[in-house]
Amino acid sequence: MYTPVRAKNEVYRSREHLTLEEVTRLIEAASERGRHRLRDRTLLLLMFRHGLRAGEAIILRWDAIMFDAGAISIKRLKRGESGVHRLQEDELKALGELREKYPESVYVFASERGGEAEHGCDRQNRRPG
After folding, report:
1. Which of 40, 81, 102, 104 could form a disulfide with 30 if both were Cys (CB 3.0 to 4.6 A apart)?
2. β-strands 65-66, 71-74: how paired?
3. Mapping DSSP to helix (H, G, I), strand (E, B) and coil, where does residue 56 land?
4. How far is CA 118 from CA 8, 115, 128, in A?
5. Residue 126 has pLDDT above 70, yes or no
6. How far is CA 35 from CA 6, 48, 111, in A?
7. Do 111 and 117 contact (CB within 8 A), yes or no?
8. Can you name the residues that pair with 83 across neighbouring β-strands?
């Protein structure tokens, strides 16, 4: 059986990251479209500023947010180092608004049903039936 070998990413593209301008436009777009604008905007903001992977963001719970200290406790899933990060004023404001909008949720970025959100990899690995 032949298994195709994929070339390294640098063959396909010259960089592996978004520029600050691109991220800013992405966050602005999330603020303008969709049913969960505040949630999506806050999600992108925190992912960008704190280097969160999708899996790290979706398991983030409200008890990890320390509003009084202006900090967030981040649990890394891979080889990164877990720790506490300072939150900027706009992050605290967005998180406060999100908390008010979804007061019953345990998760910061909850699904529509209030549970842990999913990211694309979870949906792709699920088998129908």
Report:
1. 40
2. antiparallel
3. helix
4. 28, 9, 16
5. no
6. 37, 21, 12
7. yes
8. 74
Listed in order, strand segments (DSSP E) in 76-127 are 83-86
Structure tokens at 2: 């032949």
- For domain 18-125, give the CATH number: 1.10.443.10
Q: Are 44 and 30 contacting, i.e. CB atoms less than 8 angstroms apart?
A: yes
- Regarding beta strands 71-74 and 83-86, do their DSSP bridges make them parallel or antiparallel, or are they unpaired? antiparallel
Per-residue confidence (pLDDT) for residue 125, from 0 to 100: 42
Q: What are the residue ranges spanned by the domains of the chain?
A: 18-125
Q: What residues contact 95, with CB distance under 8 A and at least 6 apart?
A: 42, 65, 67, 87, 108
